[in-house]
Amino acid sequence: MKQKAGTKKKKPFTRRDAALLSMVSISVIFLALFAYLPMFGIVLAFKDGDYKLNILDAILDAPWVGFDNFGSFLRDPNFLRVIRNTVCLNLLMLAIDFPMPIIFALLLNEVRIKPFRKSVQTIANLPHFISWIIFGGIVIALTDQSTGIMNPILEAFGLSSKENPVNLMDAQYFWVVIILTSIVKNTGWGSIVYLAAISSVDTTLYEAATIDGATRLQKAWYVTLPSIAPTITVFFLLNVSRLLSNSFDQFYAMQNVNNLEMSEVIATYSYKMGISQRRYSYTAALSFFNSIISVVLLLSANFISKKLTDRGIFG
Q1: 181 close to 250: Cβ distance less than 8 angstroms
Q2: Average pLDDT over residues 140-150
Q3: What is the pTM of this model?
Q4: DSSP string covering 253-314, please?
């Protein structure tokens, strides 16, 4: 039979297609098992599953209690302190930590000596590959009152003394330490995506700016930044959606009794309540509340961004 006019002949299913399908199938199975299947545990947020010995029995057989678990953490005397620490720290990180990879990428882009640029980029990326547990241990060792290197440095500036050394792991300094360690650990790695975006900027724009007499700083401000604005917008919106989320490893590694008042965030509080005290339904409700707020923040920030800049995550 002759093929009808205007119809395309279907391509045969090849071995290459089978290999690609297999790779995609592995990813789908992984997401199904470790991302979507555990979501069934959300039902614990609406059940009385606290202190149960068997989680599966709690999910299947525990009595329904509606929104009682949500009321429990909203009435918890520690809840406001935990929310304050989480939101305020994330807002500070959004204001201070978020621009750092952008600034670093802009500065690195201006370096013309390639070996030096690669060396700096490699050194800056190295902390990312050290786990927060190890990195936190290094920070604790450096800030130790008796053996750490930070107190002698502070002494040189008159900010500490041998008789009364500063405890940098104390509550009053904890937020500063967290922000600085986040900058050191994440700036290099975070700059990679911005460097990739900068590399795709049309070189004729720089040539035109040079002809107009623009300086290197003006090129970065008027050419590079506007060109990578869509990338910055996407990452900014994703960071806004994480205002109630923190790196558990980062905070747990550097948390102690002295700084607990300022270091307890939702991530560490959920772990302690869920694992240590076995309040599974309480923690499930807290996590579900966190997820809902994150989605609302993401959609709201995306809506505002679309109205103001005509840019957003969803096109």
Answers
A1: yes
A2: 88
A3: 0.83
A4: HH--TTTHHHH--HHHHHHIIIIIS--HHHHHHHHHHHHHHHHHHHHHHHHHHHHHHS--TT
